[in-house]
Amino acid sequence: MIWLIPPALVSALQAKEGDPFVLLPCQFDTFEVTNPTVLWTFSSSTVHRRQQGEDQLQDQDPRYRGRTSMRTDALADKDLSLNLTKLVLSDSGNYSCISVLLPCKTTACLSEDVRVEWTDEGGRKVHVYENGSDLPDEQDGLYKTRTAMEKKFKSGDVSLTLKHPSDEDKNIYTCKIYSQGKILTQKTVTLYIKGQRFNCILSLLIFKISN
């Protein structure tokens, strides 16, 4: 069972091209998520990901490599703010910070040719993976571009990150892992959302300074 309770936070920031850093603030008074994933995004690109207390930057957009950081104790202090350094004009735009991880782990060591299906209570496909690839064509439109699955097959971890969670996402989610057409593992996760979506939305404008 996962609870999401914080409100949406919206703010606007300004900085100059060449500034050493800017802090994108995101703080909450309540934080009731088990094993949360914190995901900062710019448009559909991953800016920074923190999962279970550690940075996970494998899918980070190359534009942000070596330029982002979060507090080591971010989750404990409910401070998910992001530090962005070496500012350039192309950093201007809207940033979002969201956080929800639907856990699905098995003790078995999985091969990469398994099929993983995440579905909601209505039978809609939330995320599908098979034979080394995600299958977005099988995904229901409600979840398009909003999911990312862990692919830690050796440790049996195929947990799912759901981006931009809102009231519509209150649901019971089922994770099924198939091998050769047979179900190896099936787990369910209940997601409750109170109030508005768990989301910090920030608009960043970088100014160019003329000589």
Automatic annotation (TrEMBL):
Residues 7-97, 99-190 form the Ig-like domain. GO terms for cellular component: external side of plasma membrane. One of its GO terms (biological process) is cellular response to lipopolysaccharide. It is a single-pass type I membrane protein. Its main location: membrane. PANTHER family: BUTYROPHILIN SUBFAMILY 2 MEMBER A2-LIKE-RELATED, T-LYMPHOCYTE ACTIVATION ANTIGEN. It is found in: Cell membrane. The keyword NADP does not apply. InterPro entries: Ig-like_dom, Ig-like_dom_sf, Ig-like_fold, Ig_V-set, T-cell_Activation_Regulation. Keywords: Cell membrane, Disulfide bond, Glycoprotein, Immunoglobulin domain, Membrane, Receptor, Signal, Transmembrane, Transmembrane helix. It holds the Pfam family V-set. The lineage of its organism: Eukaryota, Metazoa, Chordata, Craniata, Vertebrata. This is Ig-like domain-containing protein.
